[in-house]
User: Fold Acyl-CoA dehydrogenase from Streptomyces asoensis.
Amino acid sequence: MAMDPGFTAEQDGIRRTLRELLHKRCGPEELRAALDLPGGHDRTLWTALAEQLGLPGLALPEEYGGVGCSPTDLALAAEESGRALAPSPLLATSVLAAPLVLALGTGAQRSALLPRICDGALTAALAVPGPALATALALTGPPDGDWAGGGRAGGVQARRVQGDWRLYGEVVQVLDGHSAGVLVVPAHTGGYVRSRTLLFLVAGGATGLVRTRQTSLDATRAQARLQLRDVRAELLGGGGGSDGEEADVPAALARVGECAAAFLACEAVGAGDRALERTVEYLGQRRQFGRLIGSFQAVQHRLADVYVRLQAARSAAYYAAWTAGGPGGGADAPDRPRERAGGLALAQALQALRCAAAEGIQLHGGIGFTWEHEAHLYFKRAAGDELLFGPVHRLRAHAAGEARLFERTEVPA
Assistant:
């Protein structure tokens, strides 16, 4: 089945409405004000996104109050949120946490959580340490190893106490972990011999849970330190013990990672596009040596290079979104391509955003480095995302390994 590069009327409507809403509600002044709020985002904007667009539940089934669109639509919406650098729980809630509840949760857990997520009343977070997030999502390597706290030390440990699950440990740099209403917490259990990672649900106000907002390079992606001190938790799904089949947590995280990579790639393309637009606008106004800066051929060449990078990254991001789940089914449907394009698309998009943001700062001159100007926020978004979901060379190396590009082939004698 070939990819259709065009957009449906519904997709165009979502993008147009979202851009108009963010233009009105998330301008430069509103953005800075939201970053200073305890939650790191404007709650009224989140409510508006839920009520007017159904954005939190855009890719969730209608039976739970969602819109019933595919991950492709959510990724395309990300391009618009990236343009505005809109601080919101969308990534943590709808891209990372909610798909895990949908894929692994019991019927009761889905019914209790997903409708509230869809209407914007409940936010969620995946409590994976920031430095290990790319590994857990299978973006830079296989999701095995000690990313959730290996063996008997580190991370979060789970054990049964009188029939209840209890969690102990600490997780740092958790996206929106300080404000989320429910946490999806990976934890080790089974002791040293049978150690395995399971997912647990923890209420945001649970006894023994201490949450502290941390300073982050990219202030538009709020992060938190979570300390779990004998916290009561609920196992996500019905397995994890002798009473049911154990969930394949690494496989579920890998599927979420593919959709997350497409989402982040589209978001980075939107941010880079807006950074380029702002730079072009500035160069068309400021004069130096008696002429507009934008009229210098060397400057035009630099802008043309950025434009070409962004266009190539946009094509890769759209393709990744399509493979993650376009018309006709999800990534595992019979008519979908089998390759995992998300990691490569994310690498290309992050590199394009970094280039657009760096050129923007350079061409704005001294003001581009100041807090008063938005140019530095785009550069911090590029650097912050690469720290969380990269780096770029590891994204590409893992994709090459998955595709077996550099395997030796035996030459017949």
Q: What stands out?
A: The domain at 250-402 is CATH 1.20.140.10 (Butyryl-CoA Dehydrogenase, subunit A; domain 3).
